[in-house]
Amino acid sequence: MYEWVKAFHIISIIAWMAAMFYLPRLFVYHCDAEAGSVQSETFKVMERRLLKAIMTPAMIASWVFGLWLVFGFIGFGHGWLHVKLAGVVLLSGFHGACAKWTREFAEDRNTLSPGFYRAVNEVPTVLMVLIVIMVVVKPF
C-alpha cells in the first residue's frame, strides 16, 4: 500500500506545482490587460479555473496523501521531515496568497505590478528545491 500512497502523493504534488508555476505567470500577463476588456475577462476565467479545478484539489490531495505517508508509514521522528513540512506549510501559504490575488483580479482590484508577480513566481521553485532535497537526500 505504501507505494500506491506515495505514487498518488507524487502525482498530486506534480499537479499542484504545475499550477503554482502557471498562476503567477497568468497574473503577469493579466496586469497588462485593461480592466473589463475581453482579454481581462478571459484571464479571470483561466485563473479561477486553474485555482479551483486544479490547484486547490491538488493541494488537498498532496496534504492527504502526505499525512497518510507520515502517520501510516514514516512517522515524525526525522529532522528532514520537519524541514520538509515547514516548506510545505510555506508553499500552502503561497497558495493562499495566490487565491487572494485571484480574487483581487476577479474584482479588478489588483494593485501589484508584473515585476512583483515575476519575482514571486520564484517562491514555489525555491520551496520545491528545499522539499525535494529533504526527501531525497535526507541530510539529517
For the structure shown, list the relevant keywords:
140 residues, mainly alpha, elongated
Note down, in words, how this protein is organized:
This protein has one domain. It contains five helices and no strands. It is 84% helix and 0% strand. It starts with a helix and ends with a helix. Helix 1 runs parallel beside helix 3. It is mainly α.
Form type: elongated
What fraction of residues sit in β-strands?
A: under 5%
How many independent structural domains? 1
Outline the biggest β-sheet: none
State the total count of DSSP E strands: 0
Order of helices and strands: HHHHH
Helix proportion of residues, in percent? over 70%
Structural class: mainly alpha
Uncertain parts = none
Could you give the distance between the termini? 26 Å
Mean pLDDT: 97
Quick take:
By secondary structure, the chain is mostly helical.
Task: Give the arrangement of secondary structure elements.
Layout: H1 2-31, H2 38-74, H3 79-106, H4 114-120, H5 123-137
Helix pairs in contact: 1-2, 1-3, 1-4, 2-3, 3-5
